Amino acid sequence: MTETTQDGPMLAADGTPLKKSLRRALRAQKLRALGLIAPLLIFVLISFVAPIVDMLFRSVENQIVSDTLPRTVVALRDWDGEGGEAPGDEIFKALTYDFIVAAERKEHTRLGSRLNYEMTGISSLFRKSGRRVDDIGEDYLDQFKDLNDAWEEPATWVAMMASEGWVADQVAWSEARAAAKSADQDFETPEPAFALRPGVAKALPETADIYSAFARTIQTQDEDSPTEEEPWNPVYMALFNDLASNPDAASAFSGDVAALLSEAAAAVGNFETISPKDAFLDADEDWGDPMVWSTIKAFAPSYTSGYFLSAVDLQLTASGVQPQDEDQQIYMLLFKRTLFMSLMIMFSCILLGYPIAFLLSNLPMRQSSLLLILVLLPFWTSLLVRTSSWKVLLQQQGVINDILVWIGLVADDNRLVMINNQFGTIVAMTHILLPFMILPLYSVMKTIPPSYVRAAKSLGATDWTAFWRVYFPQSVPGIGAGCILVFILAIGYYITPELVGGTTGTFISNRIAYHISSSLNWGLAAALGTILLAVVLILYWVYDRIVGIDNVSLG
Amino acid sequence: MPTDSKADGFVVFDHVQKSYDGDTLVVKDLNLNIGKGEFLTMLGPSGSGKTTCLMMLAGFETATHGEILLDGKPINNIAPHKRGIGMVFQNYALFPHMTVAENLAFPLEVRKMGKSVREEKVQRALDMVQMGSFGGRRPAQLSGGQQQRIALARALVFEPELVLMDEPLGALDKQLREHMQFEIKRIADNLGITVVYVTHDQTEALTMSDRVAVFDDGRIQQLAPPDQLYEKPENSFVAQFIGENNTLEGVVESIKDGTALVKLDNGELIDTVPVNVSAAGERTKVSIRPERVEYNKERLQEGAHTLKAEVLEFIYMGDIFRTRLRVAGNEDFVVKTRNAPDQVRLKPGETIEIGWLPEDCRALDA
Question: Kind of pairing, strands B39-43 and B194-199?
Fold first, then answer.
């Protein structure tokens, strides 16, 4: 029911262009198909793809350093690490402020563990310093207190730092709380979030910064009120620094606070100063190690290539990418070993599987189904049982060694080591993955008509030539499919190498599992996993270029 | 070319038997001599043993008993690839991973011929089947008829003296099949090769062969040139299997002077040629070809035997009229008459008189 206008497009019976009308007809079909797969698709996306992507994202994610030590990270920008010396007091001052906040929020140990992946010892350094950081500035507190007892009062600080609006809100809030208390009611509303008084940040920048951090931490962490808590000692150090650099600060204030500040400003010149650097060095002399600082600086950015570099036995330092210490290089070895062993397993599977698949496809129906059941039998047995049985067979006091000794091939005191090494892993995994080679081979070989080989023979080819020139090339798609299946399964295999691999037969996946569950270095685990994924995809691409993915047939 | 003497047969089956399961014989006592340069067709329904015979000759099946000789030498124990027999398979069996030229070069390559010789022979073979420019294509890029030609060229390229063909035209449509029949015949005649051809299509067998061996139930029912096979079937299976056939059943009354008098089941007596009836009282099937029956009185020949018949159906088929009649109780009696200008067109329900010559009427086994 179509007609062609002079030079226009083909039209359907109702006059709409045929293409459009066809698209409309197909759209309903496509939507229906999409509707059918939608539940599974959504399930897979949410429960599988999204977590994996998130996990892989951890391989570059590194906000923890700049989140925990924001001031130090900024201060370190100008530090070049040259000269092999630790940075000066300016940076230690920033570290003090960051550290007191982190320690009060108990975040410093997390950062310590994170940086410990990059440099051993940082974790204990951080933990130790966290306990001592509150002492820094105590001397200033004493000196301010000697000057005027009012400095010890939380109220003084609130009057100086807090905005009037917040003070009013806070008063209203505490009255409401008191009322609720007397009425014996629950009162869940948290205290209004602390707000800085305008102008304070300009007059007393360091103090404003650290005091508001203090106020927020007190409020959220301890559910206390800055109106009732004496500030941390480093706040006094900040005040000292501010007053020393801006003696005129009092002019921004009025009333009692202004008087207090101008009194203090006049006195700070005679204060005994203390160096935050010395204080940290006193807590732990490792703070004097420039390596610690270059590690912090190297991992300051929010995104890092550090995990990936670690995953290929390199390390990120302040002065660039360098090879990992020789005794810590392991991942390249593991990657190479994983590739090598996966290839060995793949080739063993071809060697063992091809004749079986050939037999399967050429036997009469009855015998071939029986043989097929034998091939599939391992599928129906637990993986652990199969792996463990290899352990029983191959161990030094195991069945095979016993037989060899009994025959006299092997001396009793010189039994073969066949398990907990590469040999054992290859044997066990070849056995486990063999069906994945046989089945695609079988399904491809079944489709090769016997007349091809007959034709080749009738044309004068010997049995071998007929097989090699005619049969084998047509079974290559099956080999390809089997190889891809076996190789990809093998390269990510975990449980068998874990059980029978010993130290020389473990795969990269075992290391990934270790970082996920034992060392908790998820970033490195994610980087290793991403590399593994990339290697598989690259090999897949290479395979596609050489063999052609169209040549892969699963039957 | 055709031969019956064992001594000068190019291919000889000598008391060959074949069983797959040890219980039943698929081929029962086969004796066949094929002359050099002969085109012999094995014709029969499926399961009649014809393909098994071909496979035994090719070497893919071994005879359970008996001997097969090729050019005077027993070949039972010679491997297929040493027999030097060309073969064309039903599904062509062109190697899908090789180009047409590579397919054709394969038999030359395994015979260790040099590259230039190979190329020359391949090109000659391709030219022979008029596919000269297709050397670089893959089999999958060719149509069925083209694949057929390539398969033929491949079976011939190494110049075998014997070529076996296993229903080579089975997958082609009618027109192409007819065209290829002549083509194969022409090439076989030109090259002077011996061809053993297996088919279940009797037209194909009649068109192409020097002799046809009709197989049924593991035996050769008749071995004869096409004309004899058609005109002088030796038993009712062959009469039924080859071409269209009318059968009238009856009992032999008497046999004398090369004529058998048969009393049909409705009591009518007719003269027939006794073929495999030997004594009076035997039941027999009388076979008459549809085109040998005449109902136009003016055309009836001297000495024709006439019978009454009722017209059941009259079909106009262009070149011929096909009339279904009830004759002596048989409702499937068919008459074919040429569409000549003076030919009578019958109407269903008419009662007419039909006739045929006694020598066209053969008394066969019941």
Answer: parallel
